[in-house]
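lol forgot to send this yesterday, sorry. C-alpha cells for the thing we talked abt
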C-alpha cells in the first residue's frame, strides 16, 4: 500500500506528543462508558444442539402442549457397594427413600425397578425443569445432597438422565471461564517475555489486548442478548487474545526495525503503523469475513459463535491499531530495555531464518516435496476417524451423571436413560405402534400421555442400545422412516437420541456449506491484497492442505494420546475455519512483505528477505496463538480440548513448515510468474540483490 497522505496524517497525529495522550484519554472514556452501558450483559450458553427446525426440535415444541410439560425425569440408579444382589430389605429401603424424596425434594417418585440380574435398581424422579442448565444445576445439587443423606446403608445412589447431564455440564463450567482467562494471560505473558526479552515491553501489548478482551466479553454478551444468540464465551476470549497478540507482535516487530533506522521513536512508530496496517487489516478482515459465514449455519451455537467472534475480533483490531501505538509513543524507546534498538544497529545478516530461506531457495523442488510429504503423512490421521461422541465420552472430568449411566448400562437396557419419544395424532396411536412393532432394538413401546386438548399422543420407546452409539442413531432413523409412512399420523420422533441425529446432520450440512465459503473469502482477500491470480490459488491450496493435515494429526493425537475415539460434532467445522482463516493471517504477513521486497530485490531474493525479516515474528505469533488455543484444554468438555489441540498443532505446523519451507519453495520454483497477471518491478536495489544471490551461491 502506498503512503497516502491521509494515512500519514492519521499515523503522525496518533503518536504525536499531544495526540497520543488524547487518543489514550478517548480510549479510557470509551472503555468506562461501554462497561457502564453493558455491565448487566451476561454471556449466553451454547444453546440447543440441533437446528431450530429439526424434527427433534419440532417434537420438543409439541411436547410443551402436554400436561406437566415443565417436568423432566431423573433416574436414581442404585447398587450395593459390595456388588451383591439387591435384597428385599434393600428394595424396601429404596421405596422409603423415594417416599422421603417426594416430601423433601418436592417431586414425583416411582419405583424401585430392579434389573434382571437384581444387582441394580432405578427410581424415576420427576422434577420441575429449570429455565436453563445453570438453574437445573442448583436444583440438582440440592437433590443429590438429599439423596446422599437418605440413601440406604451399604448402597450407592447416583442421579443421572438427560437433565442431570445438562446440569453437570453447567456445574463443570463453574469458574472455568476465569480459569481459562487466567491461564491464557499467563501463557501470553510468558511467551511475550521470551519473545521481547524485556521485563517491561510485554506489559504494554498484554494490557491493551486484555482490555480489548474485557470489552469484547461485554459487547458480545450484549449482542447475544439482543439477537438471541448462543455461543461459547471461552472461545471468543481465546480468539481475541490470540489474534490481538498476533497483530501486536507484527506491529512491534516492524517498530523495532524502524527504530534501527530513525532517531525519532514517534516517526518510527508512525512509519511502522503505515507499513503494517494493510497486513493487519487484511488479516482481520479475512478472519472476520470467514466467521460471518457461520451466520448461515443451522446449528444455533455455531451461528452465534460466528457473529459474536467477528465482533470480538473487530474490537481487538481497533485496540491494536488505535490504542497500542499511542501507548508505545508515551513509553518511548526505553520500553525495549535492556535491548534498546538504536539507529545503525542492523541485525546480523546470517540469521537462522536467512539460512533456511536461502537453502529452500537453492533447492525449491526438494524443499517443496519434503514439505508436502510431511503434510500427507499428517493427513493419514484422518483414516478411520469418526465424528460424534457419546454422552459418556463428552466429559473430560468425572461426573455423577456419567457414572450413573455406566451403572445403568451394565444392568439395564442401555437405552433406558434416554428413551425415544414419538409425538403423533392421538387417533393414529394404534397405527403408529403397529408400524414399529417387531423393529430390532426396541425393548418396549407404549403411550405415555396425551396433550391437554387430547389431539396428540406421546409414545415412549425404550431402545436396547446405549445413547449416541451408531446403533441407537440408526434406530431413530428407522423409526422415522416407519412412522412417517403412517397415514394422517403426522408423527415426529424426538428425544435426546433423536436430537443427536439431527445435530450430526446439521453439523455435516454446516461443514459442506461453510467450508467452501471460507475458502472463497480467503481467496478474495489474497486476490485484492496481492493483485495476482496464481499466487492466491497456490497459497490457498497450500493452506487447505495444511488445515486437512492438522485435523488429521489432531484426530490421531486425540485418539492415541488421550483415548478419545472420535471427534466431537462441531470440531471439524470450527477447526477448519480457524486453521484456514488464521493460517491465511501468516500468509498475509509473509507474502505482503515479500511483495514489498520484490520491488527492490526481485521475487526470489525478495522472498528470502521477507522470511529473514518476518521469520521471528511469525514464529513468535504462531507459538503464542498455539499456546492460547492450548488453554482450552483446561475446560471440562472434550470438544474444546480437541479444538485447542488441533488448532494448536495446525498453527505450529503452519508457522514452522508452511510459511518457512513450502511457501518460499513455491516462490523459488515459480519466480516472477507467481505474480501473474501483475508485472512486479525489476529490482531497484541491484547491488543488494547481487549480494543476496552471491550469498545464496556461496552458501
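and heres what i got for the seq, position by position
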Amino acid at each position: 500500500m502506498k503512503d497516502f497522505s491521509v494515512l500519514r496524517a492519521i499515523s503522525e497525529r496518533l503518536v504525536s506528543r499531544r495526540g497520543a495522550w488524547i487518543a489514550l484519554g478517548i480510549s479510557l472514556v470509551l472503555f468506562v462508558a461501554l462497561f457502564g452501558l453493558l455491565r448487566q450483559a451476561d454471556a449466553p450458553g451454547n444453546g440447543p444442539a440441533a437446528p431450530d427446525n429439526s424434527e427433534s426440535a419440532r417434537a420438543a415444541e409439541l411436547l410443551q402442549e402436554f400436561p406437566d410439560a415443565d417436568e423432566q425425569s431423573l433416574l436414581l440408579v442404585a447398587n450395593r457397594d459390595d456388588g451383591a444382589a439387591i435384597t428385599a430389605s434393600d428394595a424396601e429401603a429404596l421405596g422409603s427413600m423415594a417416599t422421603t424424596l417426594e416430601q423433601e425434594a418436592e417431586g414425583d417418585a416411582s419405583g424401585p425397578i430392579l434389573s434382571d440380574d437384581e444387582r441394580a435398581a432405578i427410581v424415576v424422579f420427576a422434577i420441575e425443569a429449570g429455565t436453563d442448565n445453570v438453574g437445573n444445576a442448583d436444583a440438582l445439587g440440592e437433590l443429590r445432597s438429599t439423596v446422599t443423606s437418605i440413601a440406604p446403608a451399604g448402597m450407592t445412589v447416583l442421579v443421572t438422565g438427560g437433565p442431570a447431564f445438562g446440569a453437570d455440564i453447567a456445574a463443570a463450567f463453574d469458574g472455568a471461564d476465569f480459569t481459562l482467562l487466567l491461564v491464557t494471560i499467563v501463557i501470553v505473558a510468558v511467551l511475550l517475555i521470551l519473545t521481547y526479552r524485556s521485563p517491561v515491553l510485554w506489559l504494554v501489548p498484554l494490557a491493551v489486548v486484555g482490555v480489548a478482551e474485557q470489552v469484547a466479553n461485554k459487547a458480545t454478551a450484549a449482542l447475544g442478548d439482543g439477537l438471541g444468540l448462543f455461543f461459547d464465551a471461552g472461545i471468543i476470549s481465546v480468539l481475541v487474545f490470540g489474534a490481538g497478540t498476533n497483530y501486536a507482535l507484527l506491529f512491534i516487530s516492524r517498530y523495532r526495525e524502524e527504530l534501527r533506522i530513525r532517531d525519532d521513536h514517534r516517526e518510527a512508530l508512525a512509519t511502522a503503523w503505515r507499513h503494517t496496517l494493510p497486513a493487519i487489516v487484511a488479516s482481520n478482515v479475512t478472519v472476520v469475513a470467514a466467521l460471518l459465514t457461520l451466520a448461515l449455519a443451522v446449528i444455533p451455537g455455531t451461528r452465534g459463535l460466528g457473529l459474536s467472534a467477528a465482533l470480538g475480533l473487530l474490537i481487538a483490531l481497533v485496540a491494536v491499531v488505535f490504542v497500542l501505538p499511542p501507548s508505545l509513543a508515551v513509553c518511548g524507546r526505553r520500553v525495549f530495555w535492556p535491548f534498546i534498538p538504536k539507529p545503525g544497529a542492523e541485525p546480523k545478516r546470517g540469521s537462522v531464518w536467512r539460512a533456511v530461506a536461502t537453502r529452500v531457495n537453492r533447492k525449491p523442488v526438494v524443499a517443496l516435496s519434503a514439505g508436502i510429504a510431511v503434510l500427507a503423512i499428517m493427513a493419514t490421521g484422518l483414516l478411520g476417524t469418526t465424528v460424534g461422541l457419546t454422552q459418556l465420552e463428552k466429559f473430560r472430568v468425572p461426573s455423577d451423571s456419567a457414572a450413573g449411566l455406566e451403572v445403568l448400562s451394565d444392568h439395564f437396557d442401555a437405552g433406558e436413560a434416554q428413551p425415544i419419544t414419538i409425538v403423533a395424532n392421538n387417533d393414529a396411536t394404534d397405527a403408529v405402534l403397529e408400524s414399529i412393532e417387531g423393529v430390532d432394538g426396541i425393548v418396549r413401546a407404549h403411550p405415555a400421555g396425551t396433550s391437554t386438548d387430547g389431539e396428540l399422543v406421546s409414545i415412549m420407546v425404550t431402545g436396547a442400545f446405549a445413547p449416541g452409539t451408531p446403533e441407537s442413531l440408526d434406530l431413530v432413523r428407522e423409526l422415522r422412516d416407519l412412522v412417517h409412512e403412517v397415514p394422517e399420523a403426522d408423527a415426529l420422533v424426538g428425544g435426546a437420541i433423536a436430537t443427536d441425529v439431527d445435530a450430526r446432520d446439521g453439523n455435516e450440512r454446516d461443514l459442506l456449506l461453510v467450508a467452501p465459503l471460507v475458502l472463497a473469502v480467503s481467496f478474495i482477500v489474497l486476490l485484492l491484497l496481492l493483485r495476482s491470480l496464481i499466487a492466491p490459488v497456490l497459497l490457498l491450496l497450500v493452506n487447505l492442505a495444511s488445515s486437512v493435515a492438522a485435523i488429521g494429526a489432531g484426530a490421531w493425537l486425540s485418539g492415541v494420546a488421550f483415548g478419545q475415539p472420535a471427534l466431537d460434532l462441531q470440531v471439524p467445522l470450527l477447526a477448519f475455519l480457524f486453521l484456514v482463516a488464521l493460517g491465511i493471517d501468516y500468509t498475509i504477513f509473509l507474502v505482503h512483505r515479500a511483495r514489498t521486497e520484490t520491488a527492490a530485490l526481485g521475487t526470489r531474493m525478495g522472498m528470502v528477505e521477507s522470511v529473514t525479516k518476518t521469520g521471528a515474528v511469525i514464529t513468535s505469533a504462531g507459538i503464542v496463538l498455539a499456546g492460547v488455543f492450548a488453554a482450552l484444554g483446561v475446560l471440562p468438555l472434550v470438544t474444546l480440548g480437541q479444538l485447542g489441540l488441533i488448532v494448536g498443532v495446525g498453527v505450529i505446523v503452519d508457522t514452522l513448515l508452511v510459511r518457512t519451507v513450502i511457501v518460499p519453495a513455491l516462490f523459488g520454483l515459480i519466480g516472477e510468474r507467481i505474480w501473474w497477471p501483475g508485472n512486479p518491478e525489476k529490482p531497484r536495489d541491484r547491488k543488494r540483490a547481487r549480494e543476496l544471490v552471491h550469498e545464496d551461491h556461496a552458501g
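Confidence is low (pLDDT under 50) at residues 692-699. anyway ping me if u want another try
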